[in-house]
Design brief:
Length: 394
């Protein structure tokens, strides 16, 4: 790889031993993926923040690093809210470990944003090179915002935060961002009535079909929250880091992409709407959890409208970023009045909140994909309306 003076100085240890080690990680990655050089990034999003997912080994690794982030860097959800975790039944032993993880990241200069939706609070522009690691955030940044990031692991994202550099390969290069498989629905008209949940269910099916390839959807008319739901689910059931929706996502409107979309030959797969709706199987549930990825302001508003004047009869969790709370105080008060628990900083999957809780209903295709493996609970997919209906015993 071609190294500039700063890269070489990092590797020579002139910026400290920790950054030297970080640069060695990035150099190894660059060599594996045939990168020609390093490029600077505008921001970093670091996953691997919950003690539930990183454990003692991750905490030990973090504790041995001694450097500070040199670019804006945001942290993914942790395993519990910063305050009020006792009332939620989080064990003291877990909280103590989680606090050590939080302290370690703060010491490294990673902002304690504790969200997988940093794009609601930081400016990310089309064409920006970034290094993000939470899979739904990667998908949203690449696909909906038109930024450029590979699906980083927690350690490589942290290495970039501490050095400001990432190897230029994969989705940082425009020609690697072209669609590789085309997905169509057998009844595109059906999507006119779809909510975020059906888009999540479509993501569950589509991700399993495409794996790591870049899909191009034809004939979808989705808003940003629907795209968030679709992308998050595809990143979980497959490993999709970028997708395109023709005429909707930003890159499909570039002449370069338009030309390729029109002229290139690619595999075309038709997904049956009936298969998407089959994801919504009815089973008895013991809790409801929404907010995967963390809710947008519009989604909070929608939840509040549906829960207004109602009472939940089973545990009902609503996950939002702490920073979102300030912009929807009234709506969150309405949600809390219903008995639902508004939980910031953490999420359905990375906290121990619902581990072994029987069966849990969600409107998220990503949570649906992970609940069994990560939390040992049976998942049930439902629209937000259905989640409220079941959560309120109607
Ligand atoms: Fe975010 Fe947790 Fe879902 S990190 S995307 S809320 S699994």
């Amino acid at each position: 790889m071609k190294l500039d003076m700063y890269d070489q100085a990092l590797l020579d240890g002139e910026y400290g031993e920790s950054r030297q080690k970080m640069m060695e990680i990035l150099l190894t990655l660059g060599k594996i993926y045939d990168a020609e050089r390093f490029i600077p990034v505008k921001s970093v999003q670091v996953s691997g923040a919950s003690f539930k997912t990183i454990g003692e080994a991750g905490l030990k690794w973090l504790s041995g690093i001694d450097a500070k982030a040199v670019v804006p860097a945001f942290l993914n959800p942790i395993g519990m809210p910063r305050s009020g975790w006792e009332e939620l039944g989080i064990p003291q032993s877990f909280a103590e470990k989680q606090n050590l993880v939080n302290d370690a990241y703060i010491r490294l200069g990673i902002r304690p944003t504790y969200t997988c939706t940093p794009y609601y609070f930081s400016i990310v522009e089309r064409g920006d090179h970034i290094a993000w690691s939470e899979s739904s955030a990667v998908s949203y940044a690449n696909s909906v915002l038109g930024a450029r990031t590979n699906r980083e692991g927690g350690p490589s994202a942290l290495a970039t935060a501490l050095t400001g550099k990432t190897p230029e390969y994969g989705l940082h290069i425009v020609k690697n961002r072209l669609p590789q498989i085309e997905l169509r629905l057998d009844e595109p008209e059906a999507t006119k009535k779809w909510t975020n949940a059906e888009y999540g269910a479509l993501g569950v099916i589509a991700g399993a079909i495409v794996g790591t390839r870049i899909p191009l959807f034809m004939n979808l008319r989705s808003n940003r929250d629907m795209l968030k739901s679709l992308g998050a689910a595809m990143a979980a059931s497959g490993a999709v880091a970028l997708y395109h929706v023709n005429e909707i996502t930003p890159e499909t409107r570039f002449p370069f992409f338009k030309k390729h979309i029109t002229e290139d030959e690619r595999e075309v797969v038709t997904i049956e709407v009936a298969d998407v709706l089959n994801v919504f199987k009815e089973i008895e549930v013991t809790a409801v959890a929404i907010g995967c990825p963390h809710l947008s302001k519009e989604e909070v508003d929608h939840v509040a409208k549906l829960l207004s004047g109602k009472k939940t009869i089973i545990p009902f969790y609503v996950f939002v970023a702490e920073e979102m709370k300030a912009s929807c105080t009234e709506e969150l008060a309405v949600i809390a009045k219903s008995g639902a628990k508004v939980v910031p900083d953490t999420c359905i999957v990375v906290s121990p909140l619902i581990d072994h809780a029987g069966a849990v209903m969600t409107n998220s295709g990503k949570a649906y994909s992970y609940l069994l493996g990560m939390c040992d609970v049976a998942p049930r997919m439902g629209t937000l309306e259905e989640c409220v209906r079941i959560g309120c015993g109607e």
